[in-house]
Amino acid sequence: MPQPLRILITGASSGIGRALAEHYAQQGHTVAAVARRRVLLDDLASQHPGITPFEADVTSAAEMENLINRFAIEQGGLDFVYVNAGAGQHAPEEGWDARATRSIIEVNILGATNTIVPAVAVMLRQGRGRIVGISSLAGRVPLPCAAAYGASKAWLSFYLDSLDMDLAPRGVRCTVVMPGYVATPMVDGPDSALVSPGARRAAALIARRVARGDRVIRFPRRVALLTSLAAIAPRSVRIAAQKRRLSRRKVQRGRPE
Ligand SMILES: NC(=O)c1ccc[n+]([C@@H]2O[C@H](COP(=O)([O-])OP(=O)(O)OC[C@H]3O[C@@H](n4cnc5c(N)ncnc54)[C@H](OP(=O)(O)O)[C@@H]3O)[C@@H](O)[C@H]2O)c1
Questions:
Q1: How far is the CA of 227 from the centre of ligand 1 (A)?
Q2: What CATH code is carried by the domain that includes residue 240?
Q3: pLDDT band (50, 70, 90) for residue 230
Q4: Gap between the Cα atoms of 155 and 169, Å rounded
Q5: Cα separation of the two ends of the chain
């Protein structure tokens, strides 16, 4: 077996983060699973001896710096960091509800920065490592009902893509992952029209492409293609298509329109 990797994953108590932690642990790698819900982390760690739970809030810069340094010292290095913890919802008021918008900025932008900055410091000292940001296809093109969320993900993609240019000559690389829809607690129901993969399948795909060294990962292919088309479509077509899709989801979930 190749050398086990030392991997830190934020938002590992649920959804994509939990599936990534399980995927890597099953392959024999050492995983730091970071999130706020200790009970879920303990349950995860009890099933996988390679997973160490770290109860922390990504919005605290001090907590994140301490735990990243601690894990790197204890394990003798840090190979991958998954910047995965995220907050969001699909609702028109998301973009002007002060609480929702603030939480998205605090977790998706400041929380990501609190994870990336100390991880980069460790990796620069080592002269190698990879930061993997779980962004979103929602950050590729402005759409209704995702104003703050989409903007926060556009920021993460832009930040990591630019950072990669500065870090690559020093051995540290960045990968931007842009999922479309993955069936997790964050999305309130399967979107069969968009063929949502489950978290386990999504994690396996991400891990395979990260191992290959991909800089940008977009999936599912059909949603990625639709998003590319939306980026060049007239604004009115984009708005109508998104509204039609959201109302179709309401019907699928059995609610009257
Ligand atoms: N599901 C999708 O369709 C989809 C599509 C595109 C992108 N994404 C992105 O994928 C990532 C994972 O989302 P998911 O779908 O797997 O959702 P999820 O199941 O709701 O998981 C979100 C994770 O983030 C953690 N988290 C939230 N706030 C945190 C904080 N302040 N400190 C530490 N951890 C925090 C949660 O843990 P605790 O609550 O225990 O802290 C949880 O483990 C997110 O960045 C999301 O934006 C998801």
A1: 21
A2: 3.40.50.720
A3: confident
A4: 23
A5: 54
Residues of the domain holding 235: 6-252
* 85 within a domain of the structure (yes/no): yes
Q: What strand order describes the sheet that includes 6-10?
A: 51-55, 30-35, 6-10, 80-83, 129-134, 172-179, 216-219
Mutate to test the pocket of ligand 1, among 8, 9, 10, 16 (most ligand atoms within 8 A of CB): 16
- pLDDT tens string 41-60: 999 999 999 999 999 999 99
Name the nearest CA neighbour of 130 among 22, 8, 4, 28. Answer: 8
Instruction: With respect to residue 154, please indicate whether it lies within any of the assigned structural domains.
Output: yes
pLDDT for the residue numbered 188: 60
Domain tally for the chain?
Answer: 1
* 257 lies in some domain: no
